[in-house]
Design brief:
Two copies of one chain form a homodimer. With 337 residues, the first copy, chain A, is α+β, with helices and mostly antiparallel strands. The first copy, chain A, has two domains: 2-156, PurM-like, N-terminal domain (60s Ribosomal Protein L30, Chain: A); 163-324, Alpha-Beta Complex (Phosphoribosyl-aminoimidazole Synthetase, Chain A, domain 2), CATH 3.90.650.10. Helices cover 29% and strands 25% of the residues of chain A. Chain A contains eight helices and 14 strands. Chain A has helices spanning 19-33, 74-87, 108-125, 180-188, 206-213, 228-240, 255-264, 286-296, and strands spanning 45-47, 53-62, 68-69, 72-73, 92-103, 128-137, 145-156, 171-174, 218-222, 243-247, 278-281, 301-307, 313-316, 322-324.
Chain lengths: 337, 337
């Protein structure tokens, strides 16, 4: 099937509802994304309901620049971002929809790589693309490809997770080294004349989330994407009106990320991850949760705790000092996801 | 609440996950879209399942240019487009997600109008925006606002609708005059130095779809958006391998649409509607279906039939001739939805 689609570049007619658009969908998108629920001729598709589980839904837009980076591209990122929002909510990712914005003139070989990576990531993550839409805008009216994805998952009834469940004394965990997605995208831009072997951490966190859900005392999970770990900590502080106390020495950061940050003046605590989760657990459950998490994420760490103190984010530095982490204001890294 | 958001233009920081983005969401989007299911702090939201109904899902991107046109804007259009894809599938529209792409420099007053129209259309259509995402791209990297929406609806079990159910002898109906959305957007561009009082027909077709679902013999419904009525007819011909026979005299087209098309050389049969539906019904049900449809859409007409003949779309002209309608090839009207 793949070989049938012969156009070399996207034209406005690939978005007009006519023959070229039909060929793009039937000959490029549909074969790559094939699954029993996808029907490219239907306005809407029917999905199976699981009566004793809750239906969860999430949505995300993707505008990462460059479109391709070490460790992934905008297609695989759209899957991982969508899967992870469901996973940290305690829902098994099952279905997703995909809205595609294409720029006139985009090379089809590039689009093919993006869709192939998206299809692979979806297959590996156990999520099926069940509906899609394609729009083409004129040259210069978008930056190659933007994607919007909506994820649907199912969660066992009775799972209680959320910011409202977090209490003073609870502990924070992170599932692995932070900032690798942000640093990899940064390097891929080559704006800084740097090249490294740094790869994005983009991946499904559903295995980690599922492992933690077996632990009594799990309160809250989140994937630290835009704004990084520091931004998740600020959300926690604001929602709970407690202080978030982080230990700098405990936070895993790889040497390449540290080097890039030092060189360019970025703080890794604000860099996006796309394959990590932050969890809050009751103090008495912390060691059990860490053990469960390390079964699937060996580099997981306990990194801090919630304290009964005015809402702020405090970092205990490696030198024994305390540093208040500000909420992100200006945007050091636009177009990261 | 509305008055709290004081920024005048969108900046990259409105998309970075930090303070400005939080304010945009909490102070502009959330108050406008408020409903019991929306939780702007959550990664994913839980939705009620209706056990004896089917879950239907659809997705669409919106890039209409200009962003505002007589009869609507990109916000209300996103609601109507989403609602209508569910409606023509026989599902009651209930929930939607919204992914927003904003261009740096966009005026907030403009964004406010778009979101207000979106909120009004959602309220009028009985659909709740339950989850959202915002991305900001640099100046020149998108055309003001793009939206992607995913709709979720519920359909009674046992409804059988679709291209597979269409048979030779079946009749075609349209719920009202065609091409008004396309013509209105065309005029709003002012590329042609024309102004008219033509308004987009954009609206929910759920009342019409519901009326038809009460009729035994309903086979298929579709909203004729990109590519218009002619494109829906081509989809029917291709899927059924039958000929679609349309009667030019029976197809309702308003005088202003005819004038615009004559002047500019467009064919109204290919112009988008955003508030009409095309239905296929068994021959013996045709009069009953027309009666039911006219209760809610007084200008509905029987416009043609499916014939046992090689797959093509044939128009019986007002002068007694027959004209084969081609499948849309080039794009006369990009960025119509």
């Amino acid at each position: 099937m793949h070989l049938r689609f012969r156009d070399s570049h996207i034209s406005l007619a690939h978005g007009n509802g006519g023959r070229l658009m039909r060929e793009l969908i039937e000959e490029l998108f549909a074969p790559a994304l094939k699954n029993p629920h996808l029907d490219t001729r239907a306005d809407a598709v029917a999905l199976p309901i699981e009566a004793n589980r809750e239906l969860l839904v999430t949505t995300d837009g993707f505008t990462v620049q460059p479109l391709e980076f070490p460790g992934g591209n905008i297609g695989s990122l759209a899957v991982h971002g969508t899967v992870n929002d469901l996973a940290v909510s305690g829902a098994e990712p099952r279905f997703m929809t995909l809205s595609i914005f294409l720029e006139e003139g985009l090379e089809i070989v590039r689009l093919r790589r993006v869709i192939a990576a998206l299809a692979d990531a979806a297959r590996d993550s156990g999520i099926a693309v069940v509906a899609g839409d394609t729009k083409v805008v004129g040259r210069g009216d978008c930056d190659g490809i933007y994607l919007a994805a909506t994820g649907i998952g199912f969660r066992p009834r009775g799972v209680r997770l959320g910011l409202d469940h977090v209490r003073a004394g609870d502990r924070l965990l992170v599932s692995g080294p932070i900032g690798e997605h942000g640093a990899a995208v940064l390097l891929a831009r080559q704006e800084f004349g740097l090249r490294g072997d740094l790869k994005s951490d983009a991946a499904s966190v559903w295995p980690q989330a599922r492992a933690l859900m077996a632990v009594a005392g799990l309160r809250f999970m989140r994937d630290p994407t835009r704004g990084g770990l520091a931004t998740v900590a600020h959300e926690l502080a604001r929602a709970t009106q407690l202080s978030v106390h982080l230990s700098e020495q405990a936070i895993p950061i790889s040497d390449p990320v540290l080097s890039v940050c030092e060189l360019l003046g970025f703080d890794p605590l604000y860099l996006a991850c796309e394959g990590r989760l932050v969890a809050v657990v009751a103090a008495e459950a912390a060691e059990g949760a860490l053990g469960a998490l390390r079964e699937v994420a060996p580099e997981a760490m306990l990194i801090g705790e919630m304290r009964q103190a005015p809402p702020q984010v405090v970092l205990a530095t490696a030198f024994g000092g305390l540093r208040a982490l500000d909420e992100l204001e200006d945007d050091p890294l636009p177009r990261i996801c």
